From TrEMBL:
Keywords: Hydrolase. The keyword Hydrolase applies. InterPro entries: AB_hydrolase_1, AB_hydrolase_fold, Carboxylesterase_BioH. This is Alpha/beta hydrolase. One of its GO terms (molecular function) is hydrolase activity. The keyword Oxidoreductase does not apply. It comes from the Bacteria. Residues 267-277 have a biased composition (Gly residues). Residues 278-289 have a biased composition (Low complexity). Gene3D superfamilies: alpha/beta hydrolase. Residues 27-140 form the AB hydrolase-1 domain. The lineage of its organism: Bacteria, Bacillati, Actinomycetota, Actinomycetes, Kitasatosporales.
Length: 289
């Protein structure tokens, strides 16, 4: 574990390195979702399996989340992509990386790949979408609703969450409410130039998109396939937005297969991420912390 100051905000970073791996291995960077999420959602699901398969795994808490710093302002979407680029610089990761983004983490991944295509080898997103005008309206509505509930009816809202989702989720919701109530995230996050279809058509990076088949976001699948020249979409039956947590084995296999297809030619990544790598990953998932 490390706290790394990148763009003036200390970021909580975890790194899992495969034992005995030689230089030149593939690096995967895991980006979590918004408000109630943190790097813990990866640490307790697929991160150990990725390392067991031979990947150099980097995961971190977004600004305002988890153990990272929580400034009063500075929550425009561009700040989150700035954090990612600055972190890669500070860690001195030399080549293009594979980005894996859950929900909002996928939105950050799309934004970074559009800005720095030279630094991205592939993208895998889970229940996510680019920062289009539609995304901005949806997120603005979510943040307004959270701010209202945690300002006007906080106690009632938290009691309902504890009763229906458990006390741990209620604690996460309380922290998310404070983030929305006490910082400028609701005012700043969606104030950005929307990603257009023309911009997405220029994205040559390989993109894997995994959706719950019962999620509203699965409607994105044919739209993304029509725009992105190198993409694949996967629908996981019986799941909604929480695919990463509820079906980690499926997410693990899909992402490892995608990274193996797009590993650096001649490097160790592709060989390690074949069937043997996926078998090692499956064993690691069973024994995950």
């Amino acid at each position: 574990m490390a706290i790394i100051d990148t763009t003036g905000v200390p970021l909580h970073v975890q790194r899992l390195r495969p034992a005995g791996e030689r230089a030149g291995r593939e690096t995967v960077v895991l980006l979590h979702g918004l408000l109630t999420d943190s790097l813990a959602s990866y640490y307790f699901t697929v991160a150990p399996a990725f390392a067991a398969a031979g990947l150099d795994v980097v995961m971190y808490d977004h600004r305002g989340h988890g153990r990272s710093g929580r400034p009063a302002s500075g929550y425009g979407l561009g700040r989150f992509t700035d954090d990612l680029g600055a972190l890669l610089d500070r860690l001195e990761i030399p080549g293009p990386v594979h980005l894996v983004g859950n929900s909002f983490g996928g939105t950050v991944s799309f934004g970074y790949a559009l800005r720095r295509p030279d630094r991205v080898a592939s993208i895998s997103v889970v229940e996510s979408e680019p920062a289009t005008a539609s995304w901005a309206r949806k997120i603005a509505g979510l943040l307004d609703r959270v701010r209202h509930e945690m300002t006007v009816n906080e106690s009632e809202a938290l009691d309902w969450i504890a009763a229906h989702r458990g006390r741990r989720t209620a604690r996460l919701a309380r922290s998310a409410g404070r983030l929305v109530r006490d910082t400028a995230i609701a005012a700043e996050l969606t104030v950005c130039e929307p990603v257009t279809e023309d911009a997405l058509r220029l994205l040559d990076c390989p993109v894997l998109a995994v959706y719950g088949a019962d999620s509203d976001l699965c409607e994105q699948a044919p739209w993304l396939r029509s725009l992105l020249p190198r993409s694949r979409t996967v629908l996981v039956p019986g799941h909604e937005h929480s695919v990463l947590v509820e079906a980690p084995g499926r997410v693990r296999d899909e992402v490892l297969g995608w990274i193996a297809e797009h590993a650096a030619p001649g490097g160790p990544g592709g060989a390690r991420l074949g069937e043997g790598g996926r078998a090692a990953a499956a064993r690691a998932e069973v024994n995950a912390p």
